[in-house]
Amino acid sequence: MSKDIVNRVSKSPIVNIDLEVYWPKEPQTSIDISQWLENGYLVREKPFRSALISHDWNQYKNHYIRLFCSTEAVLPGWTHLLVSTYLHGIAKFVVQGTEEEFLNKIYTQIVNEIDMEPFRDKPIMINGCGSKEIPQDALVQLVQRIQKVARSVFFGEACSNVPLWKKRV
């Protein structure tokens, strides 16, 4: 007597959500402001402005941009602001900060733009493995949004998951 093998995972009503699928296709570029500082440390307004004017900003068309300074220069508050003005209307997204802050802000934007209707009243599995490092904060933001519509939320893979939340009826 032979029994057919049934793939219970494929027949499950659980809907998988993988934030990697939503990762933007546009390039992510980091711009080091120290390149326009005197000896990498000193901001002199006139030469700084001249360097920004002569820079080719169009190379960042539709890029996600992270502004940072690789040296320990003490920068006036207007430095990053001025650089960001040159990216207005060119870059898709501009952030000042660390690589981690950059990824958090990109993923927060991604999570906020996901249409939650396809997940309404369904059990949801948030994918726990992948090739990209998904910031924990992005996963927290996703859980906060998806709880508003889902029936239940799990984290991990179909074969090994952790139940996170279930709607109380």
SS-based structural class?
alpha/beta
Percent of residues in beta strands: 15-25%
Radius of gyration, in angstroms, nearest whole number: 22 Å
Strand order of the largest sheet: 1-5-6-7
The biggest beta sheet reads: 4 strands, mixed
CA(first)-CA(last) distance: 43 Å
Summed over residues and divided by their number, the pLDDT gives a mean of: 92
List the uncertain runs: none
- Taken from the alpha-carbon principal axes, the silhouette is elongated
Enumerate how many helices there are, as a single number.
5
Helix share, percent: 25-40%
Query: Order of SSEs, N→C?
Result: HEEHEHEHEHEE
How many E-type strands? 7
SSE diagram, text form:
Layout: H1 8-11, E1 15-17, E2 28-32, H2 45-54, E3 64-68, H3 78-87, E4 93-96, H4 99-113, E5 123-127, H5 136-146, E6 152-157, E7 160-166
Parallel strand pairs: 1-5, 2-3, 3-4, 5-6
Antiparallel strand pairs: 6-7
